[in-house]
Amino acid sequence: MRSVRADRLLSLLLLLQNRGLMTAPELAAELEVSVRTVYRDVEALGASGVPVRAARGPEGGYRLMDGYRTRLTGLTDAEAGSLFLAGLPGPARDLGLGAVLASAQLKVEAALPGELADQARRVRERFHLDAPAWFRDADPVPHLERISGAVWERRVLWTHYRRWRGEVHREVRPLGLVLKGGIWYLVALSEDVVRTYRVSRFQEVEETGDLFARPAGFDLAAYWAESSRRMEAALRQGTARLRLSPRGQKLLPMQFGAAGVRALRDAGPPDGEGWVEVELSVESEAIAIGDLLRLGTEAEALGPPGLRQAVAGAVTVLAERYAAGDGTGR
Fold it and tell me: How far is residue 243's CA from residue 316's CA, in Å, rounded to a whole number?
């Protein structure tokens, strides 16, 4: 507990050094403690010789004596590693590194010359990265912190994992974590094969007590890029020919991502009403039908014939259902 308080006192000192006058509630919010704890910590800093000045009144707060600066800004190993997550406070918190990252940022800011420190603060005030996609709750990842520790320390894990085709128990050697669209994935070696696992589907995670050696030359970023390319190629094996309205052309990238962008890039010339024909990479027919229906009346499936007939059949069923129904489900 003493080391925790020592870290907090240093963070308090660096906050006052970097930001100047701060109120007790502001300090409490930054340090995630109570205002009463701030009062005690400020007294402890003063007792240790740090010249903290208290200004009373509506514009009051705490500040350091003019000209005072500490040089106790060395980064710990954990703080240095956490800086790679500097633009991702949410994921850093998921990994159990929130407080460590905040401490590291304060130390880096304190070590910068005045002009660079001001510029760093302006960047933080003006730019923010929000990784998760819109309108989708984040996956629950109760085992993420333990998995992260195993990745870092090269610890073998015994896992209970839920797949689409059923559940499986496996021993895995965790090589790295990837955050894609707000979803965490684990890249791990299992049965001499590198596999990708969605972290939210781990039902149980236990350490075996064994350590493992990382494969020589393994590159997480390169593996992920190639794995993503293979997955997209495997999923998008069909091609649909579509006719799109001007609004449909705006919707296509939103609904189909990169595949929609590529389709529009190679689109034919617009007709008199602004409609264009495109060729779009799609998944299986069953999935493609649902995806195309999301475009509503802004798109027409021209081919292949089987897909056009399937979309027409789905539209017919919907039309009959809404024409006959009274909204009661009968």
Answer: 19
How do residues 262-300 score in pLDDT, each as one tens digit? Answer: 899 989 899 999 999 999 888 777 788 888 898 999 999
Q: What is the average pLDDT across 175-193? A: 86
DSSP letter (8 states) at residue 124: H
The identity of residue 311, as a single letter, is: V
What residues pair up with 282 in beta bridges, in sequence order?
Answer: 238
Are 321 and 271 contacting, i.e. CB atoms less than 8 angstroms apart? no
Written as six digits, the tokens of 75 are: 């980064």
Q: What residue type is 4 in one-letter code?
A: V
Q: Report the side by side order of strands in the sheet with 166-180.
A: 193-198, 183-190, 166-180, 155-163, 202-211
pTM of the model: 0.52
Evaluate whether 301 touches 238 at the Cβ level (below 8 Å).
Answer: no
**H or E segment at 70?**
none
Q: Which three-class secondary structure state does DSSP give residue 276?
A: strand
Closest by CA to 17, choosing from 76, 70, 72, is 70
Amino acid sitting at position 245? S
